[in-house]
Design goal:
The chain has a 5-stranded mixed beta sheet with strand order 5-4-13-8-9. Strands 6, 7, 10, 11 and 12 form a 5-stranded antiparallel beta sheet that branches. The protein is about 10% helix and about 30% strand. It is α+β, with helices and mostly antiparallel strands and about 400 residues long. It folds into 2 domains: about 220 residues, Oxidoreductase, molybdopterin-binding domain (Sulfite Oxidase, Chain A, domain 2, Alpha-Beta Complex); about 120 residues, Immunoglobulin-like (Sandwich), CATH 2.60.40.650. The longest helix has 15 residues. It is globular, with a radius of gyration of 24 Å. It binds cobalt (II) ion (CO). The site of cobalt (II) ion has 6 residues, from loops.
Length: about 400
């Protein structure tokens, strides 16, 4: 292609986009020959690499023991609704065990007619299902409960990710084993050294729980539970037990450490809520957000993510004046139940200070509360299940920061 043709092509393209780029140059970038267009490129390879400019990475938590820490997804650098598996958040309690698919087995026992043991090959022979679901740690956004609210999306909201998971429905296995009378709960136990285990209602297990061996088209990554993990759609991430090795069907929940001292919600009257599983409707503007800087006045797309453990996102509203007026954002289709929903909103930044935020409404009619509304009900003792509205302030110089509580 001659550079003249390239130039005409670009100018035509620029004109078609019209007013969006007022103030932007439509001059084409001059391609010089030593940029490589006339050189033969690299050949095929066995496994892909990311582009050389890509610097996005998980942010490591501050726990001095990395085996009992977390890492967060850079939600403001991911696109659409899928989180690359390599950027999916982590929360481990005893490190990532080195397991092999060949040796791994799942035991299904307890209140069943026939106890069963499955190899991964056994599970892969069964009818499979692929579903896109978000996973969110119960502690995601926990900093928002205090006055030291999060300064950016990754540190404040990055304990949430979204993947297409492939595996076998737990209901398939439970039907195969046969449930005995009184089977009301099941305990899922992981193969890490702390044997992470959680009690879950059998009703949920029969409804939509997946035993996943695949994530975004390939095998689970070791830090995501390879070779087998539970995926409990819409519920706090801790119950989606990784490195799954055992399911025991029982009559009553266990009230284990993770169900008493942890993962409970202390209310203002001093009583704790237990087995609060579902993650409620939540959203956050990811672009622009804390730590970003707007460099040009005029058109800026506001974009973010919304999700709910109670089905589909029905609507997302955006404010650009600190909450006086809320307007409807465009939602990316299809809207999948218990998956991230991407929202987009056209914004013209005048160069003046603006306070922006989003709020999600799910198909149950539930409206994401303001932080103050949430605090009024839940009090100041909570660590988990924060889902209040998050405000970002765009200063006159374009710098975007969190808004002090
Ligand atoms: Co909970």
């Amino acid at each position: 292609m001659s550079s003249d043709r390239t130039r005409r092509g670009w100018i035509k393209y620029g004109a078609a986009l019209g007013g969006l780029f007022t103030g932007c140059s439509t001059e084409p970038h001059e391609q010089s020959e030593d940029e490589g267009i006339n050189k033969l490129g690299k050949g095929v390879g066995l496994y892909g690499e990311r582009s050389p400019e890509q610097k996005v990475a998980r942010l490591l938590g501050t726990n001095k023991h990395p085996e009992a820490s977390s890492s967060t997804t850079p939600l403001d650098s991911t696109m659409g609704i899928v989180t690359p598996a390599a950027l999916h958040f982590e929360r481990h309690h005893a490190g990532v065990p080195a397991l092999s698919e060949k040796d791994h087995e799942l035991l299904l026992h307890g209140l069943v007619d026939t106890p069963l043991v499955f190899s991964i090959a056994d599970l892969k022979r069964l009818p499979s299902a692929s579903q896109t679901y978000f996973l969110e740690c119960a502690g995601n956004g926990g900093r928002e409960w205090s006055e030291k609210v999060a300064v950016d999306v990754q540190s404040g909201f990055g304990l949430a990710s979204c993947s297409e998971w492939t595996g076998v429905k737990l209901s398939t296995l439970l039907q195969e084993a046969g449930l005995k009378a009184g089977a009301q709960w099941f305990i899922a136990e992981g193969g890490d050294t702390c044997k992470m285990h959680r009690s879950l209602p059998i009703e949920k297990g029969l409804k939509d729980v997946l035993l996943a061996y695949g994530q975004n088209g390939e095998a689970l990554r070791p830090e995501q539970g390879y070779p087998l993990r539970l995926i409990v759609p819409g519920w706090e991430g801790n119950v989606s037990v990784k490195w799954l090795r055992q399911i025991k069907v029982v009559a009553e929940p266990l009230a284990s450490r993770e169900e008493t001292s942890k993962y409970t919600d202390m209310m203002p009257d001093g009583k704790a809520r237990q087995y609060t599983f579902a993650m409620e409707a939540k959203s956050v503007i990811t672009n622009p957000s804390g730590g970003h800087k707007l460099t040009k006045r005029g058109y800026v797309e506001i974009s973010g993510l919304a999700w709910t453990g109670k089905g589909r996102i029905e609507r997302v509203e955006v404010t650009t004046d600190g909450g006086k007026r809320w307007q409807q954002a465009k939602l990316q289709e299809p809207r999948l139940p218990m998956a991230f929903t991407r929202f987009r909103f056209d914004f013209h930044w005048s160069g003046e200070e603006a306070t922006i935020a989003s709020r999600a409404v799910d198909e149950s009619g539930y409206v994401q509360p303001a932080r103050e509304e949430l605090l009024a009900v839940r009090g100041g003792n909570s660590h988990y299940h924060f889902n209040g509205v998050k405000l970002w302030r765009i200063a006159a110089d374009g710098k975007v920061t969190h808004v002090e509580a």
